[in-house]
Amino acid sequence: MSWILILEQSLNGLQFGLMLFLLAAGLTLVFGIMDMINLAHGSLYMVGAYLMATLTQASGSYWIGLPLAVLATAAVGMLLEVSILRRLYQRDHMTQVLATFALILISNELVRIIWGAQPVMLNTPDALSGPVDLLPGLSYSAYRLLIIGVGLVVAVLLYFLVTRTRTGMLVRAGASNREMATAMGVDIKRLFTLVFGFGAALCAVAGAMLGPILAVQVGMGENILILAFVVIVIGGIGSIRGALVGSMLVGVVDTIGRAFLPHLFREFLPPAMASNLGPAVASILIYVLMAGVLFWKPQGLFPARG
Amino acid sequence: MPGEALLDVRHLCKRFGGLVATDDVSLAVRRGEVHALIGPNGAGKTTLIGQLSGALRADQGQVLFDGRDISRTSAHQRVHAGLARSYQITSIFKNLSVLDNLALAVQARSGSSLSFWRPLKAERALFEAAAAVLAQIGLQARGDSLAGNLAHGEQRQLEVGLALATEPKLLLLDEPMAGMGPEESERMIALVLGLKAQRAGSDNPLTVLLVEHDMDAVFRLADRISVLVQGRLIATDAPASIKRNAEVRKAYLGDELDDAHGEAHGEAHSSHGAPA
Amino acid sequence: MTLFSAAHHRWLAMLALLGLVVFPLAMQALDQSFYIGFACRIMIYAIAASSLNLILGNGGMVSFGHAAFLGAGAYVVGIMMEEGIVSAWISWPVAVLASGLFALLIGALSLRTRGVYFIMITLAFAQMMYYLFISLKAYGGEDGLSLPGRSSLELGSLSLNLKDEFTWYYLVLLLMVLVLYALHRLMQARFGRVIEAIRENEARMEAIGFATYRYKLVCFVIAGALCGLAGALLANQNSFVSPKLIEWTQSGTLMVMVILGGVGYHYGGAIGALVMLVLEEVISSYTIYWQLPVGLILLAIVLWAPTGICGAFSRRAQHGKGH
Fold this sequence. Notes:
The structure holds 3 protein chains of 3 kinds.
Chain A: H1 3-34, H2 41-59, H3 62-83, H4 93-115, E1 131-135, E2 138-141, H5 142-164, H6 166-176, H7 178-183, H8 188-210, H9 220-235, H10 240-268, H11 271-296
Antiparallel strand pairs in A: 1-2
Chain B: E1 5-16, E2 19-30, E3 34-38, H1 45-53, E4 60-65, E5 68-69, H2 75-81, E6 83-85, H3 98-109, H4 124-136, H5 152-164, E7 170-174, H6 182-199, E8 207-211, H7 215-221, E9 224-229, E10 232-237, H8 239-244, H9 246-261, H10 265-270
Parallel strand pairs in B: 3-8, 3-9, 6-7, 7-8
Antiparallel strand pairs in B: 1-2, 1-4, 4-5, 9-10
Chain C: H1 6-29, H2 34-58, H3 67-82, H4 88-110, H5 115-134, E1 145-146, E2 153-155, E3 158-160, H6 165-188, H7 190-200, H8 202-207, H9 212-238, E4 240-241, H10 248-261, H11 268-286, H12 291-304, H13 308-313
Antiparallel strand pairs in C: 1-4, 2-3
């Protein structure tokens, strides 16, 4: 295996990790500040991707479709919060799991009714459809570079928003101590709705960016949702920093593992065994990572609470 | 042997972040004595109880119990060694009857509970032992009531009863009078005195480490008193000497003693440990 | 305050059992044999859901990865059959033991964490199992494994034909009744009291001398092993095993069954399985979008009737937040 290949896979890992971070950030904030498990977070990602496909087609431009889809998904998220999720904050975690599980069933079926069971096409913008020469011998998809760029910009923006603005302070205060936020006289209800809409918007960005690479289809939100959960559990629930570190870890470990473990196994094991075992181990690598982290740090890498 | 140290705490330290909750505490509780631990709110009394019972890990120092180092053992192992605690905030099984609560504590010390077939109801011995504790704590009439339906004072009695049912050598009582009215406090005092008298002179006398804010109760019950202020032990002595100790009066006791003799008695109670 | 006393419960249970015994005869007489197999599926899921109810309802351990054990049990039977071992006397106990062993490993790690972390780590372990079987190309990989038939079962010189719908039905019924009875005994025994008390107040259980971690782990292993039995039966029922059995939605569905029926109620799992599968069957005969009404019903129940069907018929102290 060459350095070029390793570099390319690292970029893929970074790209995947950044998109995971967009999901994990919203999830961990909702988790931390409202003490709420929201399985339907993945549905917002799916809805974001579908809206992106429709709005891009309707407007004829990727660049018009993107902001519209993000805004529309944020609106959907806030609507969901005001109508249903708000009732779940005071309930136990099992109830939250079940209620949001029901929301997944409902949203999957609604999407199927509206857009049909077949995957929907979402194309990369024409200008970015080709590869770019990064280094001599390393050409990399321009669109994936865009994803990395957008991911980095959003991550930096999010960092400033959470650490440098008043709203961000409130959110962080809420994540580590809900009573305190209430005591500070914050309009918690509005703050929650806002945070939720914001999380939904991040979902939509991830869905819209990944749509052209992965298939836009029913159920697309669920696998990535579980990965996002792995991320925030590794990082420590409620911690944005933990979500970032966790996303990078999971993104890179997963991508690199899938790319290189089979090769690695072939060096040591008989080919038949290696071709069986390689993909198997690669696909469970991040779960092993998570189990390992929880074994030594049951509260994750950056515990936000006690 | 009465008189020797049953519990020997050596240089115990506990920090929470920057806060020092227990600062180099060394303390000996003698076999057969009622040893009171007093100090202002936030002095670290409950934290210390937590470290002794094994619910909290100490950062440094040793806990010796009955001649054995138990610093590294878990809470349930310490119970089996003969060290049981009660809680400041009532912590009983509210969905079980009073008798079932006590039977559960008896069950913990009598045989394995990896029993999957034989009905619990058929285990007469458990309930007989539980009934004996029920009588000790004076709740005979309430055996069949749901623990959650008891009055506050009765719940506090059951709270102590749960610890008692484990047959401890050392009873750690964390503010047993918390939230009680004068009448209920009187009953609790009688309960502790009765337990002590019952086992006095035997080779297995009851030893008590009592954390309490009710100074009247403390001075009636305690053989010796230790004073904890800001995580540090500033004195350990007989009650009469503690009362005269200038440092203790300055740091803590002065106010409390005045309160205990003034009109603010009831208020002093209500300031800590509201009914849970 | 219960609407039905214990005696009523016994009568109702007897009546239900009688109904279950005559059910296949009635269906055959009505020429509706399809429903015999359907009833078998319900009873198998009743075992699985009841095993989840043991840890979730009685023990307060919200496991979101219970399908892992269903899959483990099913795959053991499937793989052994593929390798030529068809005797139920061998493969079923192995399925139960293997699932119990998996539960021991998963539980030993997961039970170190609490709350949300526990929910997530159990989910992650089930996902791990899911991907493991997907990449197991030798046994069908993603497509799953079709089995040549059902296990063989010899009783002395008598060989039961499990392909016969009647024999199969009564065997599944017998096993379900045995499991439910064993769970009933367990909850009435010392162990059951300990498990329920740990759910109510774990710190106090430590403080009166119980090694709570160990009891929770034993409970988790029992539940895993029983679910493994359900898995072994399901492999036979479908003559097919696939990673779909371990999908996280399966774990979710098992949880839904438990809450539908009644968390912590003895028949909660069984009634939940019955209602859920019948609901699916009925609604899917009207619309291909059956998940929409099922989701709406589930949402309504979770929001407005959190005690489930059993809870609606008997009022007793409910569990609040924090378990």
